[in-house]
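User: Sequence recovery, please. Input:
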């Protein structure tokens, strides 16, 4: 039987106001910054002209620039002044679909439209302290209305949740190289926020992402990309904050660094999966502040065959509210075998109901190291802090647990404990 595991833990940028000879001013190229005039043709023509002459910067002075979908091309950068705002059209007719058939056959998210997209481009970027606002709620509600009137039927309409599934992302880049996004504000996509697939050498730095306008509003999604640096970002999302995905067999995320970010999420703050056809390698997460996450702080979830192994967790402090009692979906450690595999279910905490640990529940993992991990309870909890179920090569050091809860706080079932500090061993209980 195929095993699936779930592992749950709670090139030129200029100073504003300066324009180089290689740059174009959006207003001087015919755009109107009144928030009402649709500028799609003017802006796309300017991007095309910059690309044709070898590249440059499209500069947006203060103003509100309404536009439909724009394709960013090689060697072109968008620069938005602090008071400049790129506004997404609220008409779905202004978002033509782009070709992502390879991903869509597997992904099935149907988000094959975007306010800004790029495919096969290199040396591209978005910078400046301005804002890109997708007006996602208005756009999504318009799409929903047109579906019900029969004017623009969404063949992927979610009848259960009563919402359209064909909605534009805020930004989508596929098969691009040398991408830089710095300092810009992104907000209110109709679907996912910033989405990247099969890209390489990607820098995302000091962004402010507010994506809570509608459903499935992830903050940043990285699929099968290499050499990715996400740092110093604030993300507030109505779904996963930063989500690593793998939609393509034979490809994977590799050499990904996530650091110094502050994340608020209605789902998981940082998630691996659930799409995981290829997998995830060499991912580093460092100095992340997580607040008000509904599901997990970090979740590693494989449902379609990925290898994920050799996980290292260190310098982590988790404070849990506790308060679970034996009257609440009680699952004793003697019944760990009764926690269902549920291979066809969505691998979140909801598929198991109350899990038999209050800190870490680890199952079907090969190679895990935990160092300098501190767990605290605000109130008592009858469950152990750690459960390792059919895990190989476990290494524990520097584990700190509540002083009044020692014995039985680390539970092993059919698990190979490779090494542990003497101070940790007194917490360990083995069960069949």
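Assistant: Recovered sequence (432 residues):
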């Amino acid at each position: 039987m195929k095993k699936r595991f779930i592992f749950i833990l709670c090139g030129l940028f200029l100073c504003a106001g300066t324009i180089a000879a290689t740059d174009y001013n959006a207003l001087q190229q015919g755009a109107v910054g009144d928030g009402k005039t649709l500028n799609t043709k003017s802006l796309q023509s300017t991007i095309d002209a910059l690309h044709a002459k070898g590249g440059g910067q499209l500069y947006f002075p203060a103003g509100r620039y309404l536009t439909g979908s724009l394709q960013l091309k090689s060697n072109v950068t968008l620069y938005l002044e602090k008071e400049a705002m790129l506004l997404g059209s609220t008409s779905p007719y202004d978002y033509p679909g782009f070709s992502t058939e390879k991903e869509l056959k597997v992904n099935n998210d149907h988000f094959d439209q975007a306010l800004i997209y790029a495919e096969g481009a290199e040396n591209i970027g978005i910078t400046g302290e301005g804002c890109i606002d997708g007006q996602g709620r208005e756009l999504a509600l318009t799409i929903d209305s047109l579906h019900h009137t029969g004017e623009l039927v969404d063949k992927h309409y979610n009848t259960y949740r009563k919402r359209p599934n064909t909605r534009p992302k805020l930004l989508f880049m596929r098969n691009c190289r040398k991408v830089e996004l710095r300092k810009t504000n992104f907000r209110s996509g109709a679907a996912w926020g910033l989405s990247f697939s099969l890209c390489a050498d990607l820098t995302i730095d000091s962004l402010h992402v507010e994506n809570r306008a509608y459903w499935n509003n992830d903050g940043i999604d990285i699929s099968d990309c290499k050499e990715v640096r996400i740092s110093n970002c604030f993300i507030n999302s109505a779904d996963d904050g930063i989500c690593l995905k793998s939609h393509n067999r034979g490809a994977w995320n590799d050499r990904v660094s996530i650091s110094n970010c502050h994340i608020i999420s209605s789902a998981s703050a940082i998630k691996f999966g659930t799409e995981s056809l290829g997998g995830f390698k060499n991912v580093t997460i460092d100095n992340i502040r997580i607040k008000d996450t509904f599901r997990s702080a970090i979740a590693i979830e494989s449902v379609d065959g990925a290898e994920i192994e050799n996980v290292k967790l260190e310098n982590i402090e988790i404070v849990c509210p506790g308060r679970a009692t034996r009257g609440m979906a009680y699952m004793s450690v003697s019944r760990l075998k009764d926690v269902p595999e549920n291979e066809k279910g969505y691998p979140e905490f909801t598929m198991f109901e109350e899990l038999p640990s209050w800190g870490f529940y680890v199952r079907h993992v090969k190679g895990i190291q935990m160092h300098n991990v501190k767990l605290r309870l605000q109130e008592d909890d009858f469950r152990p802090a750690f459960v390792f179920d059919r895990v190989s090569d476990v290494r524990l050091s520097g584990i700190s647990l509540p002083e009044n809860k020692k014995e039985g706080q680390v539970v092993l079932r059919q698990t190979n404990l490779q090494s542990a500090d003497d101070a940790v061993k007194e917490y360990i209980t083995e069960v069949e």
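The first strand starts at residue 6 and ends at 9.
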